[in-house]
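User: I'm curious whether this sequence folds into something compact or stays loose and floppy. Could you predict its structure so I can see for myself?
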Amino acid sequence: MTIRTCLHAGAAVALVFAAQAAIAQTTSEVPSSAAPYVAAPPAPGVVPPPPGGAGSPNPGAAAPDSSGGGLEDIVVTAQKRAENLQDVPISVTAVTGESISALKAVTLQGLNGTVPNIQLNNFSNTPNSAVISIRGIGVVEPDPYAGNTVSIVYDGVPQFFSMGALVDLYDIERVEVLRGPQGTLFGANTTGGVVNIVTAQPTGEFGGKVEATYGNYDRFDIAGAIDFALVPDTLAAKIVVSHSQRDGFFTNVVDGSDMGSRKTTIYRGYLKFTPTPDFDATLIGEYDRGRNGAPVFQIGASPAETGPTPNPNDGGATTSFDAESLYLPPDVKGYPNPCPSRFQRCRSTGRLLSANNSVPDVSNLDTYRATLTMNLRNTPIGDITSITGYKHFRVFEFTDQDQGVQFLADTRRKTTGWQFSQELRTNADITDWLNLTAGAFYLKTHYTHRQDFRIAFAGPVHQRNDQDQDNYSLSGFAQLYADVTDRLRLQAGIRYTYENTEMAASTVTRLALAPGSFTFDCTECVVLGGPAPSAEKSWNNVGWKLGADYRVTEQALLYASWARGFKSGGFAGRIGIEQDIGPYEPEKVDTFELGVKTDLLDRRLRLNLGGFYTNYRDLQIAQIYFINDPVTGLPVQGNTILNAGKAEIKGFELEATALPIENLTLNGSLAYLDAKYKQFTYINPFTVSPANPTGIPEDLSGNPLQNSPKWSATAGFTFSLPIGEDKVQLRGLYSYVDSKFLSSINNSPRSRIQATNMVDANLDFISAAGWQIGVFGRNIFDKRYIQSVFDNFGYAGLVSYQNPREYGVSGRFEF
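Assistant: Here's the prediction. I'll summarize afterward.
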């Protein structure tokens, strides 16, 4: 076996590329598999090794038949080159477009519970913001300033902003989930890992598909894609259109209307230019239009209460402001209260009822993307790749913050942001045993955000928060691979990053003079002032990776690695107190991983097992709280990001796929996660008082990290019954996620989320003539699980739910 490695001179690449203006990519295809987790063609901008490279089979080669020849080879691009999954010495799971379609996953969040040790959520009252954690590493904060610890990479372009990061998943080739720090090849903000999304690329041959789905809650999806050639063998094109809509799952007790409706449309176009075998360029343009209902949740509130003994979560004795009793939902048409006590876990009421009587039912998201990927092969300095990406997004939404029948508080939020990125890299053979991937990356981002917060129960008060942030980063990276023997491969990588962030933030408090003037624009209001700081800072960081893998047999690979990743520092923007702006410093992660990948029993059983230990330092933790302003005495929402001391994370992930008999594929996973603070002294803002201005310190050592369930597991099957040339296919999937804490730094009882057990199933008739029809069910036992609780002590608990039972029929025709 020979694994090839490559080295690169950055300046030479830039000169050659400027002169030739081109790059390289693969379009090889791998047949689809009956197994649920099989990846096919490599991502844009990924250059596959040539045929014959041991450990990296030719992606265009025919795979064994899964019904008689064992499990197929799975091609992934987790190391920015096409490789057999069983030869990639990292923990990675690949989910195909076929599996995504079977799950009826409209967005990335639809994969939640199907991949080990990853949590895909959104913030309770801002559903357009992604909250993603891998192995307990993630940030729970709705605004863009917090950044990400799990990078979403979309057709080779990292998505800097969490807003709009829950990408829609129609016509996706595959989703790869890389667990653990990926800072060498993917850069900053990957301390948890990477979710690599690859759309289906143009083929240059005429063909396409049309799909439609109808389900309960008046769900209606219609989508299609068409491939064609503008110039045969030279210029290929593709057009994709997808529309999805449904009613909301909740009922508004005020007027009986539904709440939380969804209506999104995606337009995506491709042009692929291939003038010679050694050069190709792919231009992708996309517009995503979301016209959804306003965010919806249930309010969970309790009267002022103190525990039988002094409780660090109880602010009743240390702050004069306590709004919870105002949020107690009255018994209007049986409006439920899922959190009757601050000192107990919230519990699902099973009744999807809420209320909105003060704001428009609006949550609009517009996202524009453009990506240009160019590949130039066989140059004197290797195969050169350039990926240029641009994204612009707008979010405009209202939220009834009390979700009750009386007007207590609401918000209007407007966010606009853009990012530009450029990656230039080469993959070159130094010798027949030494190979290096190296290059440079530049990212520039900007966003503005305005939040108007009306507080009717005190004042009435209007708070306007404005944020204006500029950020840019520049990095250089190199990853070296060396085949010491035909069985032993070593790798070493390093990445240097320079980053600069500027933030201007202000929060102005205004007091309305009359009820008629209490609008979001707050006419005739008395301006009481507020903080308006600005700041700028730069950071330098170095990440690296050292690893080795050993091919014990042709069917078994052992690997070990040490990777260091980091998440950049920055500033908080949604501030109520001037010093909350920060800065907060970068966090760093060292992960040590051991693993084995095997194909056993004549390739009918695949077992992949990885164990890890992580040393996590200077954790960035979002803190959101509500206190009285010491000057005005009016309520102020405080927000900042803290750097905790240390945490320790350890665990394992086991994934299995089996072909016990012809036409039956079994798959499953089991993951264990022990993620705890090792050193963290926390000052609860509710313990700050005139008598104790520095607050009471809490030692959180030993507390579990947020969003880190101890156990998670899946078990599924796919059974195909041939009927002549056609077949009937039955799929089933069970997923389990253990209980966890979410959105409370000191793990208050109210922030605990219950364990979940979910069952999904599909039954399809698949015709050899290119059409299929079927029925599906998600959460078929209709479990009414709480998805998240934003525990804002002294204010209320904001409770959102996982989707109830969904079912329907779907059809597809390919031509």
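Summary: The chain is about 5% helix and 55% strand. The mean pLDDT is 86.
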